[in-house]
Amino acid sequence: MRFPAVLWRRGVLVAVIAVLTLAVSGLGVRLWSAGPPGDESLEAGFARDMQAHHAQAVQMALIVRDRTGDREVRTLAYDIATTQQQQIGQMYAWLDVWGLPQASVEPRMAWMRQGHQNMPGMGQGSAQMSGMGQGSVQMPGMATREQLKQLEQASGKEAEILFLRLMIPHHQGGVQMAQAAQGSGQPQVRRMAGSILAAQKAEIELMRGMLAARGAAESPSPSG
C-alpha cells in the first residue's frame, strides 16, 4: 500500500486541531502555569529546531517507502513518519499557544547551550558542549542535499542500506537535541523530549540490526 501523499498537509491539520483543542478546553494557560516561554527560550528553540529535524526524517521515510518493497523497512519508515509528523504538530501548537512565531531571528541551535547548562551535571566542560560557541551550531545528524538525492535515485536493497545509514546518525542527532531539552522547566517539554529519547534510541538499535542483516556497516568503506 502506497504511503499517503497528504501526510505533510495532514501535519498542519494536526497542529490546527491541537491549537483549537487547547483553546476550547481552556488548558492553554494551565499547561504553562509558570508563564509561557519567551522567544529566546530553550522551549521555543527546541520546538522550532526539532520540527525542522523531524521534517527531514519524515522526508527520508517517505522516500524509502516508495523505493523498496521490503516490509520491515517500510514498516519502520511508516512508524517514523507518522510518529514524528504527529510530534511536529504538537510543537507547532505549542508555539501558537505561547504566542510565538514559528520561525525566529535567533541562530539555529542557540538554545542547546542553555539546555545543557540546565541539566544536572552538565557544566561548561561537558563533552556534550564541545564545539558549541555563543552562537549557533550545525543541526546534528542532518543529511545533505546530495545524500537525499542519492536516496531518491536508489532502489531496493541499495535504498534500504542508504536510508538506514542516513537515519541512524539523524536519530543520534535527535537524541542530542532531546537530551538538551530535558533541561526545560516545562514538564510537557521534558515529557516530549523523554519520548523522543526512548523511541529514537530503540530505533537506532533496530536499524543497526537491519544493517547487519543486510551485510552492511553503518558507514560505507572508503571504496564505496
Automatic annotation (TrEMBL):
<protein>
    <submittedName>
        <fullName>DUF305 domain-containing protein</fullName>
    </submittedName>
</protein>
<dbReference type="InterPro" id="IPR005183">
    <property type="entry name" value="DUF305_CopM-like"/>
</dbReference>
<feature type="domain" description="DUF305">
    <location>
        <begin position="43"/>
        <end position="211"/>
    </location>
</feature>
<dbReference type="InterPro" id="IPR012347">
    <property type="entry name" value="Ferritin-like"/>
</dbReference>
<dbReference type="Pfam" id="PF03713">
    <property type="entry name" value="DUF305"/>
</dbReference>
